[in-house]
Amino acid sequence: MSVRRLLAAATAGPLGVLGLAAPAAAHILVQPGAVSASTMTAGRLWSLVGALLGLGGVIIGGVTLTRSPRTGSGRRGASMALVAGLTCTIIGGLVVAAADGGPGTGYGIVGGFLDLVVGAVATLLGGLALARSRRNVS
Fold first, then answer.
1. Least crowded by CB within 10 Å, which of 45, 55, 130, 137?
2. In this structure, is residue 23 part of a structural domain?
3. Which sequence ranges are marked TM in the entry (predicted)?
4. Overall domain count for the chain
């Protein structure tokens, strides 16, 4: 599989999540009643997955941004950070939208808000690195 097809598939994934899987994800994330602080609920799991994905995007974007622009991996790392950041933001938005209660209710709303921030940072770093790689290629 070529890199272009891989990037196209990775970009189409978050769009599919928004268009087709949002009602299903909202149905899965909704849970009745309060749970204990140590219980891993679906909302908490999704916010944890989003946070790990966003953290990976922040790390990749930061490393790509600090590397020399003459290395060949600048555009690939920037694209990976951009896709990871957008996916993290989408997951965080879905978790926050599906949450019926506040912090401590098991819906993962705190992690969802964290995903929104970390995803935005990863997207910003990926975008800066992508702009830098495009500027130095030509």
1. 137
2. no
3. 45-65, 77-99, 105-131
4. 1
Q: Is residue 11 part of a domain?
A: no
Q: How far is Cα 8 from Cα 39, in angstroms, rounded to an integer?
A: 37
User: pLDDT band for position 32 (50/70/90)?
Assistant: very low
What is the spatial distance between Cα 115 and Cα 120, in angstroms, rounded to a whole number?
A: 8
Distance between CA atoms of 58 and 11, rounded to whole angstroms?
17
Sign of the Cα torsion 48, 54, 60, 63 reads negative
34 domain residue, yes or no: no
Distance CA 30, CA 43 (A): 8
What does the pLDDT look like over 100-129, one tens digit per residue?
Answer: 877 877 788 888 999 999 999 999 999 888
3-state secondary structure of 126: helix
